[in-house]
């Protein structure tokens, strides 16, 4: 429905600010130099979503994210593909000089952070094929409405979900940004 009509139905609507989908054509399987350290479709979906939502610095403007963490390395690559960490520097935000930047605990303690997987992530839910994106969106909805209980992030403005289907060499990626 139109944004101006949403409050007629509930006092606390969550709005879709951007939705981008990018599908690969299998370039990774055809290239001998594909190194699995970057998923171009994730980068392009993220950049398109940021443009649509008028986000200039996702590391500072996104309040929280749920990403497709099918493997630990996939989550780390996604942090770089979505520009949450500079290319090749995600280690610094995970274990290095800025360790814990993506943790819920750091955000709850009032430190500068971008909590990723505030509800635990895909794997802790058993990687529910088909339901992953809905579950991610539900977490963003609960957080934005201030109803996430003990994992509630203080005053979130924008949430991002990233989901991937298929292998990293030819995936389909969705990137959704929601806010108040």
Give a verbal description of the structure:
The protein has a single domain (3-179), classed as 3-Layer(aba) Sandwich (Peroxisomal Thiolase, Chain A, domain 1), CATH 3.40.47. Helix content is 32%, strand content 16%. It is built from eight helices and four strands. The protein has helices at residues 3-6, 27-30, 40-52, 58-61, 72-81, 90-94, 104-108, 132-144; strands at residues 15-23, 64-66, 158-165, 172-179. The chain has a four-stranded mixed sheet, with helices on both faces. A hairpin with a 6-residue loop joins β3 (158-165) and β4. It is globular, with a radius of gyration of 16 Å. The mean pLDDT is 92.
Brief overview:
Helices cover 32% and strands 16% of the residues. It has helices spanning 3-6, 27-30, 40-52, 58-61, 72-81, 90-94, 104-108, 132-144, and strands spanning 15-23, 64-66, 158-165, 172-179. Strands 1-4-3-2 form a four-stranded mixed β-sheet, with helices on both faces.
């Amino acid at each position: 429905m139109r944004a101006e009509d949403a409050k007629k139905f509930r006092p606390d609507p969550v709005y879709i600010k951007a939705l981008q989908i990018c599908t690969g054509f299998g370039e990774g399987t055809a290239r001998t130099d594909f190194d699995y350290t970057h998923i171009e479709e994730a980068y392009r979906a993220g950049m398109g979503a940021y443009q649509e939502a008028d986000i200039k610095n996702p590391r500072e403007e996104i309040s929280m994210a749920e990403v497709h963490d099918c493997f630990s390395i996939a989550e780390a690559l996604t942090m770089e593909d979505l520009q949450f960490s500079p290319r090749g520097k995600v280690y610094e935000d995970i274990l290095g000089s800025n360790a814990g930047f993506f943790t819920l605990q750091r955000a709850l303690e009032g430190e500068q952070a971008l909590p990723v997987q505030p509800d635990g992530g895909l794997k802790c839910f058993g990687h529910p094929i088909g339901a992953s994106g809905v579950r991610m969106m539900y977490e963003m909805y609960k957080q934005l409405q201030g109803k996430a209980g003990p994992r509630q992030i203080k005053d979130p403005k924008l949430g991002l979900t990233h989901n991937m289907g298929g292998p990293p060499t030819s995936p389909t990626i969705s990137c959704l940004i929601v806010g108040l």
